[in-house]
Amino acid sequence: MSGWKAAAAAALVGLTLLLAACLTPTPPTGQASIAAPGPATGPVAGPVTVTEPPTAPPSRAYVPYIVRAFSHPTPTSTPAPVSDLSLTRGPLLQRVTTDTVVVVWETERAAPGEVVYGETADYGSIAADTAIAARHVVTLTDLSPYTRYHYRVTTGGSLLLGGPQDATFRTAAPPGADFTFIAFGDTRTQQDVHRAVVGRIAAEEPDFLLHTGDLVEDGSQDDLWDTFFEIEQPLLANTPFFPVMGNHEGGSSRYLGYFHLPGNERWYTFDYGAVRFVALEIDTVADYGPGSEQYAWLESTLAANERPWLFLFFHVAPFTSVEDLYELDVRAALQPLIERYGVDLVINGHKHSYERNMVNGIPYIVTAGGGAPLYYMAEREPTQVVFVRAYHFVRVAVSENQVTVTAVAVDGEVLDQFTLTK
Questions:
Q1: What are the structural domains, with CATH classification, of the chain?
Q2: In whole numbers, what is the pLDDT of the chain averaged over residues?
């Protein structure tokens, strides 16, 4: 490394450490940031066994974060001529199935667009949107299940300025195949932290992503969405993305315009491998109680499940150790359905921490450490197993008969791990 590069790298490390020190708050006197394991209420329901690791949870109060550079593989594809047309957003991967995926991107001005793709960096296939438009939504079809594809977006055969020379994605796994996904949330502020979390997630190379809401601070502001997509771009270009709305999206029409999700896009379901995933809009805006459209849809969707595993994800958590009266309403409305229809795992955000509660044998996890200021524990839930005040994400490894859930801090430390076994 040349002298000026070494000096620049050293300066970046020093700046990163200074930022981490400045953003690390001092816990109030007498407030713990991690709780010891606690009992679940009631017996373990159904045929699922929850196994705890032999080691105790970590005993620290805060996980410092470090900024990591993205590791981009060297493209092996033939370089394409580069257009003078700039890519302004995307590409973004949506609605992946075993044989399809949706690719979304935007350019600075209207033009036709194409996706060239194939199982190698030689591509061999093309899907075109001939409409003269600044926004393109192209569906690739007739793909093979759980297969890695290479692709790039072009206009008139030329690579968009600022676009990836070669990106990849994997189609959805069929029933019986093992896969891994990552859940994270509340990325709305402290964008240096957000960037560090995204960098760590990208290094994991998950098959797809769940976002538990509060993507941005104010869903009505275009500049905040610009920042979100700029930070997330290296991840979203290579990993299908399934978000839900949080209270900071505020039912935003911009959210619905940027993303192309299943169903009505506010609440939806999709199958991946041995799991049925059910996404809800529990954001303090939408109605979700008995008698509502969303509640009726949820009950029919849970009742119709035929997959071995059933996962539910939404923003406002029904069980947390951070005070919030709204969660009691969510609990009253949804817990009966969750238990009646055998939901195996509930994934939430909203409370800026990591927490796991075990309620009648069902794990409820809060993953809200994507960048928003961290919360302290207020009053411990009697069902609480682990609470850690840390920036983090959650990795979930799924096989047909076993699910391993691991909470990972942005510096790589394991915060919590447990296994569900059918």
A1: 49-67+174-421 (3.60.21.10), 82-170 (2.60.40.10)
A2: 87
